């Protein structure tokens, strides 16, 4: 270990540790403690109840659908922003971050108004027999909206820094655009895409504000897990709330680990060099 | 495959432009495009490959006008300056890529066989399953060459093929590339800014400056008869003295040198540091030694002429003179040119 | 096509038909998914006229919600900024055991659902939580009051400032600070005259994003605030309340304030990115291609 030259470690580290302990670790530990105090039987009964299971199903399936949509949309958006020049490009680039900047409750009421059967989009869609607001489709819309920036912002810089000589090499070797895209560009974007996908998916799993307005919140069909935890709280069923929240926390940890693992795996060929 | 460029033009806002280059490369020839950075040499190479469009002129492959043939149908093998190996593919997959995407379908066995042959050719038999990130720079260079050769190109193009390598690796690879070229006999054009590399490797050297060809010829021709002061300077260390040209002679401090074909008026003579002998008295340009620098195999002497112009020359390690001593410079093989 | 004239040969995806199709696809989706929600907020906010809009904003409960939101931000953002700077200083300018773990813990709130955060706070300060009974007997109110709202806001935004500073300060190294210290400057002096000028844009960037999130946080605050109209309702909670009261115009009027804040945040973000903020954290280690071929 190098000799300590710069001052300020005790103070800076002290502040950091105290803050992290009080603000981050203590509450999460309290949640885990509360959930653990239930005992395995009660815990399992709560987290495996039919209603809880239905909420996991809705949440996970909608998050998957939203992530697939964002994979296509996000990759296209990143590609267009990096590779094409068109009027308004910088405006579109700035707008990509709107879902992060716009409070989720605001997004929630805006999307609900748009997709309600008397809304700008909901009206025409209902003529086609498609109902979005108060159905799982609405959940997907809200999840997609709140996680649009993830994939764009992870892919964009990698696409920008991609060595043009790699594409040129593909061209001199006689490859078609499609071969170069699928054989060279896509694999090189894969780590960033995977990172963006797992961030987008995690965010969708935990999203609350934007969804509850548009979802309809019917148990067994349009009730997401985050809402169930909230409802149990309002019913003063604190153990159930703790148990369900702990499942969400565990999922978040697993997703974090998966994200890191996938990135490390996808980066294997850059290990050296 | 013979390559012919006729009055090829490429406009760029800044540098790298090409202003009307015509060049014939014979089938099987190994030609170097040599020039400083910004001389347009890489632009020419990229136009031959089809990676850059010419704004004017034409490029012929044999009798075929290749100017408008898209890069992927042009049938060139291109080795990029930083190799551009696909980092997510193994060495073997990199080499196989061109065969896999080809319109001419080959069986996986045929591709594997060809990959093995090419790996043997570039002497990387054991590295088939490594990733580019796991091999050395010199090895990557050879993989890049094997990948380019895998598509049976009509022409091989190399952009600064040794630029990113250490000096000793560079020398080995140079000789090895010459050997491969002699075995395959494929028409090869490469770009370099290193005159030693060009002279060592090429059958013919094309020297470029500011987007124009200033001289082309065998290494012997360009070394012995540099067409102008730029070529003389670019090919190696040179001394330069102002001169007056009168009636086919160049006069420096009253001493006359051969200057056939140079118009009367202001001029200059250029000569190599090895082409100077120091005399205590007798013929030559009067000069005074300013400094002596010792080197492992010689002494480099810095002197000022009577008119105050600096001259550097190399002598044997036994050279007995030192700072402040006066004498005369006997200059061999001087070349006279008009003033710059 | 005798001569292509200017320009380079087409790159992958430059085929005009493909290009136009993809561009149209993306722009239509951006219009539908991103622009339309913004427009609908403005339209709905003024759907009952300017007078009603003004009255909605001027409503005492709305004004109280705005005030509470601003007060929350005024406490949470500076504290969070101080933490972020301290954490970045400790992590980037020093070596100590457990540094990686600390970084992971700081980033953790980014992965945790706001609802989980809110519920967790309940089990610390709520009556059924760790300190709840003790706090009640001491008559200290944390939950369903300003302190709870501030704490929950701090949780969700804990990584925001540190996340901008750490990669930048890592990249800048320690040379400048070591030089200043060797010239006899004190720690504070070194920080304010050497470190701070080099990180000011990134710091401001983090502060802007942090503020935006604090003012807009819904889920976590929703759990800990108790939703008492005119008392513990922040602006996002008030928007929900009005919306469920079937006062859409009032709800959107309040929402338009936060939408305005979002737009100001985006503009500030673009301006700060022009100063170089927010770029160092780009995941350049993911740009595998470059790191090999450029070597």
UniProtKB/TrEMBL annotation, chain A:
Q: Which InterPro entries match?
A: CysT_permease (IPR011865), MetI-like (IPR000515), MetI-like_sf (IPR035906), Sulph_transpt2 (IPR005667)
Q: Give the highest taxon in the source lineage.
A: Bacteria
In terms of SUPFAM superfamilies, this protein maps to:
MetI-like
Q: What is its main location?
A: membrane
Q: State its location(s).
A: Cell membrane
Similarity annotation: Belongs to the binding-protein-dependent transport system permease family. CysTW subfamily.
Summarizing the function annotation, the protein's role is: Part of the ABC transporter complex (TC 3.A.1.6.1) involved in sulfate/thiosulfate import.
Instruction: Name it.
Output: Sulfate transport system permease protein CysT
- Organism of origin: Shinella yambaruensis
Automatic annotation (TrEMBL), chain B:
UniProt keyword Cell cycle, yes or no: no
Q: Which residues cross the membrane?
A: none
Q: Which InterPro entries match?
A: AAA+_ATPase, ABC_SmlMolc_Importer, ABC_transporter-like_ATP-bd, ABC_transporter-like_CS, Mo/tungstate-bd_C_term_dom, P-loop_NTPase, Sulph_transpt1
- Tell me the domain of life: Bacteria
Residue ranges annotated for the ABC transporter domain, each copy included: 3-235
Q: Which UniProt keywords apply?
A: ATP-binding, Nucleotide-binding, Sulfate transport, Translocase, Transport
Pfam families in UniProt = ABC_tran
List the coiled-coil residues: none
Q: Which SUPFAM superfamilies match?
A: MOP-like, P-loop containing nucleoside triphosphate hydrolases
One MF annotation (Gene Ontology) recorded for this entry: ATP binding
Family, according to the entry, reads as follows:
Belongs to the ABC transporter superfamily.
Name the record gives this protein: Sulfate/thiosulfate import ATP-binding protein CysA 2
Q: What is the lineage of its organism?
A: Bacteria, Pseudomonadati, Pseudomonadota, Alphaproteobacteria, Hyphomicrobiales
Gene behind this protein: cysA2
TrEMBL record, chain C:
Q: Where is the ABC transmembrane type-1 domain?
A: 66-270
Does the record carry Ribonucleoprotein as a key word?
Answer: no
Instruction: Spell out where the chain crosses the membrane.
Output: 21-46, 66-89, 101-122, 142-162, 248-272
According to its record, how does it sit in the membrane? Multi-pass membrane protein
Name the major location. Answer: membrane
From the Swiss-Prot or TrEMBL record, state where the protein is found: Cell membrane
Looking at the record's lineage, which domain of life comes first?
A: Bacteria
Q: Which UniProt keywords apply?
A: Membrane, Sulfate transport, Transmembrane, Transmembrane helix, Transport
**UniProt key word Nucleotide-binding:** no
Q: List the signal peptide residues.
A: none
Q: What does this protein do?
A: Part of the ABC transporter complex CysAWTP (TC 3.A.1.6.1) involved in sulfate/thiosulfate import. Probably responsible for the translocation of the substrate across the membrane.
Q: How does it assemble?
A: The complex is composed of two ATP-binding proteins (CysA), two transmembrane proteins (CysT and CysW) and a solute-binding protein (CysP).
Protein name (Swiss-Prot/TrEMBL) = ABC transporter permease
């Amino acid at each position: 270990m190098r000799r300590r030259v710069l001052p300020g470690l005790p103070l800076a580290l002290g502040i950091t540790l105290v803050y992290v302990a009080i603000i981050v670790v203590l509450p999460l530990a309290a949640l885990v403690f509360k959930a653990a105090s239930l005992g395995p039987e009660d815990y399992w009964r709560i987290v495996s109840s039919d209603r809880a299971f239905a909420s996991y199903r809705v949440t996970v399936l909608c998050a998957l659908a939203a992530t697939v949509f964002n994979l296509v949309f996000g990759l296209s958006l990143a590609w267009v922003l990096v590779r094409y020049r068109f009027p308004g490009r910088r405006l579109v680039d700035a707008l990509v971050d709107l879902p992060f900047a716009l409070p989720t409750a605001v997004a929630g009421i805006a999307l609900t108004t748009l997709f309600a059967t008397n809304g700008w989009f909901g009206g025409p869609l209902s003529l086609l027999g498609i109902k979005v607001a108060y159905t799982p489709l609405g959940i997907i819309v809200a999840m997609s909206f709140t996680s649009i920036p993830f994939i764009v912002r992870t892919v964009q810089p990698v696409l920008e820094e991609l060595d043009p000589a790699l594409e040129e090499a593909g061209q001199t070797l006689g490859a078609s655009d499609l071969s170069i895209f699928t054989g060279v560009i896509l694999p090189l974007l894969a780590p960033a895409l995977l990172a963006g996908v797992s961030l987008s998916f995690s965010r969708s799993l935990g999203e609350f504000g934007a969804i509850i307005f548009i979802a309809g919140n019917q148990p067994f069909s349009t009730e997401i897990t985050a809402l169930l935890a909230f409802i149990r709280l309002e019913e003063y069923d604190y153990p159930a709330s703790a148990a369900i929240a702990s499942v969400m926390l565990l999922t978040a940890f697993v997703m974090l680990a998966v994200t890191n693992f996938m990135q490390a795996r996808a980066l294997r060929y850059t290990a050296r060099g | 495959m013979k390559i012919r460029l006729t009055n090829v033009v490429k406009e760029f806002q800044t540098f790298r432009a090409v202003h009307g280059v015509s060049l014939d490369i014979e089938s099987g020839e190994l030609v170097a495009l040599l020039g400083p950075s910004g001389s347009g040499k890489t632009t020419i190479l990229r136009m031959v490959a089809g990676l850059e469009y010419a704004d004017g002129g034409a490029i012929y492959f044999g009798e075929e006008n290749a100017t408008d043939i898209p890069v992927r149908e042009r049938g060139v093998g291109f080795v990029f300056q930083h190799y551009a190996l696909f980092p997510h593919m193994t060495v073997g997959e990199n080499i196989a890529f061109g065969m896999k995407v080809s319109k001419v379908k080959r069986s996986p066995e045929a591709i594997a066989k060809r990959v093995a042959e090419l790996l043997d050719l570039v002497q990387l038999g054991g590295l088939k399953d490594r990733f580019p990130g796991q091999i050395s720079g010199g090895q990557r260079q050879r993989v890049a060459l094997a990948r380019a050769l895998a598509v049976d190109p009509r022409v091989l193009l190399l952009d600064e093929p040794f630029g990113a390598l250490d000096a000793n690796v560079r020398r080995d690879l140079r000789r090895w590339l010459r050997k491969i070229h002699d075995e395959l006999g494929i028409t090869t054009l490469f770009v370099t800014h290193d005159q030693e590399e060009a002279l060592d490797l090429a059958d013919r050297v094309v020297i470029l400056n500011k987007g124009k060809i200033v001289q082309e010829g065998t290494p012997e021709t360009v070394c012995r008869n540099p067409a102008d002061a730029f070529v003389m300077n670019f090919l190696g260390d040179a001394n330069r003295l102002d001169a007056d040209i009168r009636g086919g002679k160049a006069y420096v401090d009253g001493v006359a040198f051969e200057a056939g074909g140079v118009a009367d008026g202001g001029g200059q003579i250029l000569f190599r540091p090895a082409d100077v002998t120091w005399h205590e008295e007798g013929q030559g340009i009067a000069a005074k030694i300013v400094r002596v620098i010792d080197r492992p195999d010689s002494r480099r002497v810095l002197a000022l002429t009577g008119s105050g112009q600096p001259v550097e020359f190399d002598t044997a390690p036994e050279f007995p003179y030192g700072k402040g001593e006066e004498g005369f410079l006997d200059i061999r093989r001087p070349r006279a040119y008009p003033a710059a | 096509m005798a001569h292509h004239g200017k320009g380079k040969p087409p790159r992958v995806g430059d085929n005009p038909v493909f290009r136009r199709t993809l561009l149209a696809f993306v722009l239509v989706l951006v219009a539908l998914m991103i622009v339309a929600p913004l427009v609908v907020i403005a339209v709905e906010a003024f759907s009952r006229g300017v007078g009603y809009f003004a009255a909605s904003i001027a409503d005492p409960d709305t004004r109280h919600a705005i005030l509470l939101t601003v007060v929350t931000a005024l406490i949470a953002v500076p504290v969070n900024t101080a933490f972020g700077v301290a954490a970045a200083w400790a992590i980037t300018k020093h070596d100590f055991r457990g540094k990686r773990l600390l970084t992971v813990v700081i980033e953790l709130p980014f992965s945790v659902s706001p609802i989980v955060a809110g519920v967790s706070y309940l089990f610390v300060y709520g009556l059924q939580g760790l300190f709840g009974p003790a706090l009640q007997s001491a008559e200290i109110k944390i939950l369903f009051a300003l302190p709870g709202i501030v704490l929950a806001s701090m949780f969700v935004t804990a990584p925001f400032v540190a996340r901008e500073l750490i990669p930048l300060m890592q990249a800048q190294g320690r040379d400048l600070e070591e030089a200043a210290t060797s010239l006899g400057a004190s720690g504070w002096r070194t920080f304010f005259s050497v470190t701070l000028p080099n990180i000011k844009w990134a710091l401001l960037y983090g502060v802007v994003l942090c503020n935006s999130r604090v003012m807009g946080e819904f889920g976590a605050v929703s759990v800990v605030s108790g939703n008492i109209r005119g008392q513990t309702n922040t602006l996002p909670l008030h928007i929900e309340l009005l919306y469920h009261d079937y006062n859409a115009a009032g709800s959107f009027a309040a929402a338009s304030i936060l939408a305005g804040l979002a737009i100001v945040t985006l503009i500030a973000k673009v301006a700060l990115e022009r100063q170089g903020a927010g770029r160092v954290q780009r995941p350049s280690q993911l740009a595998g291609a470059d790191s090999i071929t450029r070597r």
